């Protein structure tokens, strides 16, 4: 497989220098992995996982740092600077990610978070991004059924909920009543298809619906108990925030799951503890 700019690559070390090592970028040529990123004990002939991009002097450079997003992916990132060229986003690398003014859906400001799509400029080989993501989504009929698990990225807040990118392919809506816990633009998380409307629009839920929602947490509770010497202090009297932090479900769902486990005689309940039988 050829090496790709803007992606993680597994490349072979060709030679070692005082300032780092050169890896085989195949059609891209030899690429420097600076000494500060060279894993301890790495030798010529061995392979290393690196991300390839252009440094501040527009030279190809490799790093073992894994960025928050790669070419061909969507992400929600914070703006760290704005100048006469455009806006710069923090994506986890020393060189910030540029969104030119021409690629901004609305003019962005420092400190904001925005959804963006990362792509490779075919003329300059520079990695850039665009916040004009609408045209990149909903190009086909959603293939989902109610209850299907998907990955979402939280988008803009509306008067009914949050717009979300679903599996990097579709727009969906997470209504306020279906959003468990605190969410913010750019958050990535699993979700479930609540329904696909006749017009192709997707309604989402953070939790599974109906009986599956309860049965899905049963194994998690038992596993948590087993890892904690058969008991826990998280009970039906615990706060919704604590329950969501540990089990990622609402208090109502957690209480139903405890009731099911108690009915099956798998746990014992007391005022301040749950014990595994």
Automatic annotation (TrEMBL):
Source taxon at top rank: Bacteria
Limits of the Conserved virulence factor B-like winged helix domain: 219-276
Record domain Conserved virulence factor B first S1: where: 5-64
One Pfam family hit: WHD_CvfB
Signal peptide from the UniProt entry: none
Record family assignment: Belongs to the CvfB family.
PANTHER family: CONSERVED VIRULENCE FACTOR B
Full protein name: GntR family transcriptional regulator
Source organism: Marinomonas piezotolerans
């Amino acid at each position: 497989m050829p090496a790709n700019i803007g992606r993680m690559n597994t490349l072979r070390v060709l030679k070692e220098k005082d300032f780092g090592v050169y890896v085989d970028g195949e059609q891209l040529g030899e690429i420097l992995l600076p000494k500060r990123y060279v894993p301890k004990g790495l030798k010529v002939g061995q392979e290393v996982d690196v991300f390839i991009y252009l440094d501040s002097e527009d030279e190809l450079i490799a790093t073992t740092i894994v960025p928050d997003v790669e070419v061909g992916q969507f992400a929600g990132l914070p703006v760290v600077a704005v100048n006469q060229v455009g806006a710069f986003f923090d994506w986890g690398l020393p060189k910030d990610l540029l969104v030119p003014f021409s690629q901004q859906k609305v003019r962005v400001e420092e400190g904001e978070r925005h959804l963006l799509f990362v792509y490779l400029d075919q003329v300059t080989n520079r990695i850039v991004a665009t916040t004009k993501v609408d045209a990149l989504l909903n190009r086909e009929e959603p293939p989902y059924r109610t209850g299907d698990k998907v990955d979402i990225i939280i988008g803009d807040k509306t008067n009914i909920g949050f717009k979300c990118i679903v599996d990097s392919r579709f727009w969906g809506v997470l209504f306020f009543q279906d959003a468990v816990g605190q969410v913010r633009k750019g958050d990535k998380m699993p979700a479930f298809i609540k329904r696909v409307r006749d017009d192709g629009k997707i309604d989402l839920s953070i939790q599974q619906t109906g009986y599956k929602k309860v049965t899905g947490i049963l194994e998690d509770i038992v596993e948590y108990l087993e890892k904690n010497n058969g008991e826990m202090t998280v009970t039906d009297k615990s706060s919704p925030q604590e329950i969501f932090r540990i089990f990622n479900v609402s208090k109502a769902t957690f209480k139903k799951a405890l009731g099911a486990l108690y009915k099956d005689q798998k746990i014992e309940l007391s005022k301040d503890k749950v014990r595994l039988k």
